[in-house]
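User: I've been trying to design a sequence by hand for this structure and keep getting stuck. Would you show me what you'd pick, starting by listing the structure so we're on the same page?

Assistant: Good idea, let's start from the same input. This is the structure you sent:
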């Protein structure tokens, strides 16, 4: 994660130097950017995971003064799932037990096609101006979920053998996703904008239940809410 952030920061500095050196005033037809967001699971998914970071890059193209189409790639990793810390009640002695080596993880890689619909005539491309917009998108998420090293709860003889564990439970699929949200671009210069965005994501994937750990039905679909900031760099044809 630190290496990725270091790489993104150096990329931003390079793009800033390029954009500030360009003096022409021709229309800005396309742009590139990168972002970092706070990614929060909601509803059923919140029972399994806490919030984490989401980061990615995008490319956008001007269709008309109020409408941009944006291609986005992003990645998010939930590596400290709640189920790994949750005890189960062993039916033999009715006592709670935590699996000491348990891991519960979920990784997302996503590609989406977004529409950015700007208000008030579109972006002004001038320093110290603000351009709000609505965002809606569709795409695909590839996800991998894994629960491993959970104690086998079906044991019938005392003492409980904590080294006897369930087979790893792995779910991996590529599924459809939709998102919608609201954002604003604050222009730092004629070609550089700070992009602030909040959005809601629906991922049409499922995670299997973990009955003895209190998850008695599959998680479907998966819902996430993210809010973050990025930089956009605009160029001409």
């Amino acid at each position: 994660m630190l290496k990725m952030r270091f790489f993104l920061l150096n990329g931003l500095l390079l793009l800033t130097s390029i954009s500030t050196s360009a003096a022409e005033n021709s229309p800005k037809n396309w742009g590139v950017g990168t972002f970092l967001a706070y990614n929060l699971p909601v509803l059923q998914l919140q029972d399994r995971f806490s919030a984490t970071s989401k980061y990615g890059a995008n490319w956008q193209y001007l269709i008309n003064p109020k409408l941009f189409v944006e291609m986005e790639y992003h990645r998010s990793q939930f590596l400290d799932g709640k189920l790994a810390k949750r005890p189960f009640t062993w039916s033999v002695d009715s006592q709670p037990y935590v699996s000491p080596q348990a891991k519960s993880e979920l990784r997302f890689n996503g590609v989406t096609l977004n529409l950015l619909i700007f208000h008030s005539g579109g972006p002004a491309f001038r320093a110290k101006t603000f351009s709000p917009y609505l965002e809606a998108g569709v795409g695909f998420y590839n996800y991998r979920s894994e629960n491993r090293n959970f104690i086998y709860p079906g044991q019938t003889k005392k003492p409980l053998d904590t080294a006897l564990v369930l087979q790893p439970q792995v779910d991996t699929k590529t599924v459809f996703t939709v998102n919608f949200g609201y954002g604003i671009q604050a222009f730092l210069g004629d070609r550089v904008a700070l992009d602030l965005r909040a959005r809601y994501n629906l991922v049409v994937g499922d995670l299997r239940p973990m009955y003895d750990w209190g998850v008695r039905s599959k998680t479907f679909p998966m819902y996430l809410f993210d809010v973050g900031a990025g930089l956009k760099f605009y160029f001409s044809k």
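That's my pick for every position. To get oriented when you compare it with your attempt: The domain at 33-235 is CATH 2.40.160.20 (Porin). The chain has one domain: 33-235.
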